[in-house]
What we know:
The complex is a heterodimer.
Chain A: H1 3-26, E1 30-34, E2 37-41, H2 47-77, H3 82-113, H4 121-141, H5 146-172, E3 184-185, E4 188-189, H6 193-236
Antiparallel strand pairs in A: 1-2, 3-4
Helix pairs in contact in A: 1-6, 2-3, 2-5, 2-6, 3-4, 3-5, 3-6, 4-5
Chain B: H1 3-21, H2 23-42, H3 54-79, H4 82-88, H5 93-122, H6 132-158, H7 166-191, H8 194-225
Amino acid sequence: MRKSSLILASIGTLLLLTGIYLAFFVTPEIVVRIEGEEVAQFSQKIFYFHVPVAWVSLLFFIIGGIFGIMFLIKFLIKREQSYDQKGYAAVEIGFLFGILVMITGVLWTRADWSVWWDWDPRLTTYLILMLVYAGYFALRSSVQEDSTKARFSAVYAIIAAINVPLTFWAGRLEALKPVHPVVFKISGASMEGPMLAAFLVSMLGMTLFAFSLFLMRLDLLRASEELDYLKEQVEVV
Amino acid sequence: MSGGKQILAIIKKDIIAELRTKEMVISMLIFVILAMIIFSQAFNAAEKSLVEFGGGLLWVAFLFTSMLGLNRSFVHEKDEGCLEGLLMSPVDRPLIFFGKMLGNLIFLMVVEVIAIPIFLVLFGLNIGASLIGPFVAAILLGNIGISSVGTLLSTISINTKTRDLMLPILFLPIIIPLLIAAVGATGGIISGDREQLVSAYAAMRFMAVYDIIFLLVAYALYDFVIGE
């Protein structure tokens, strides 16, 4: 393992553990008024995990698109493949965290709205995004030739990344009624003190942890490519 | 030849090929009418008013019909070796995109011109005379999005192992934002309600932005998708 990914992983893990500690033992429980009665919402604690995971997943989808653009630019100058691996690893990380977003989201909706699923804009949007990126993997497995696979995946990753904000925008149109809570508005965050601290620590920890996973995955992809190459050499001899 | 003439030449080629066989437009037309009959049976249209989800039914039918045409338009090119000819001809590759995209748009619109009146009659829906303009605009905006994203993605899918099976998997999730807006726009216009019209126009603005973005992106990326 590379030193950089090891360092990132350990700092990330430490921050994540701190975030969990802060979330459960330091931050106050949110109290909401339901029909005149004050109800403490323990389920809100998942927010310190759910939102960082969602942020990381969207971040890596966008990074995947940027690697797609860089691949195509490099491809024009010299036929180089390295950005294909980077793009693939980024989309994989995004997808992995996307699955976590869905799982934590569904757990929370069950606890708070007492249903497993609701056709809320954000939930629907996320489900659509996951299907867009499922298409990415289907596309990759359906092309045999390496350079064609790399070109097609780069193009599709760019389209998919552009689709991310568009899907969120479409979800805001009148057609769907929003119920998902909005914590961050343009006017600023509706959080303060220990809650904001716990949240920021978790955000940073999750981001660093995800980057370490990305670097490890990239090393793995390179190693497996090298292995394929060596196998070919042995067969030739 | 200038760019415009090159595009026109590609469109003309597709139209002539289609006029000789007429297989694509006719099968799309039969398909779209069949889809409407299936909807009317599945949703028990005789008993309920369809004003509420008329827009949705219309776009689901058009979306699936368009995929029929999109697949067809490249299966031909690929199987008959026509694509190589097109690539070897002195035409700028991004212009091939506009040629194919406009061809797909024309075929889809020919089918819709016949299918929309049938749809309105079959489901007993009315569009006020003053709303015909916005209705046509909403349909057109939807079609432009479908054919620009569809042309790019069907060029990709036809070059994969699974070929036409790949198109729905790539195309449908990317087109869903447009579908949400299109359903909102046509649904609002069909209802004729003043409040719903406001959100219908907001949805149409979204469709226009979506169309412009994907026209430009598809134009920029087409070179990487078609041929070596």
